[in-house]
Amino acid sequence: MAASSRQNVHRRKAGLHLRFTMMQRNDGRMPDEIRPINFELNVAPHASGSVLVSMGKTRVICSVTIEETVPRWMKEQGVTGGWLTAEYSMLPYSTQPRKPRDITKGRIDGRSVEIQRLVGRSLRAVIDLEKLGPRTIWVDCDVLQADGGTRTTAITGASLALAIACRKFVREKRLDAAPMQKLVAAVSAGILDGQTIVDLNYEEDKAVTVDFNLVATEDSDFVEVQSSGEEATFTGSQLDEMVALARNGISALIGAQRAVLARIMVTPVES
After folding, report:
1. How many domains does the chain contain in total?
2. pLDDT in tens, 159-170
């Protein structure tokens, strides 16, 4: 399902005045505008929930499955409830030049490990693991096309896939109640030529002097904030601007997720 992504950030939010210029970006967007978001459902028939999510030219398949067991460490330590884990990969043809498969190197590259841990943390923050019982939810995120923001796009798509899967688990009586408590989404931001911008494409991601990622729930609660100066420092006011841009972007993404759930008559929270 397509959803309009053109969002105008409130110029005053919580007393913060965002100083936007009329800078137009390399893809025609304004600084406060996210890319078009689209969700295509049921792309992986054997998964309980699957979504092909597109943010502009970045496209990621997110699928959710469940296993009737938990990791060994939970059994050994007597930890109750279930677990959720994520795996992330960029398919060879997702970039130019071709990206070799990890199996050819004999190990998962560090970036993929970092991102799949981020996806797992982001989703565990909004799920009641006790309601899972002794089960493991697997979330697989495979990048088909990379044009910046693959980690944030993966989180946004995986959240929708998980909401759909949890409802299915209840309908099939595999779970007594849906364990997902809130929707979650993520978006990037940064500083380019002194201007704060949101939802970076690849060319922008290469050029920004400050890189920022925000993961937040539908209630605007933060799950994770990542920010670093690539070639420069940044001020507190610039950080506030990136947070405000990202929060508005996430609000638009949550709205798109909710529109899909409403259309298929799925609610993300079910007790």
Report:
1. 1
2. 999 999 999 999
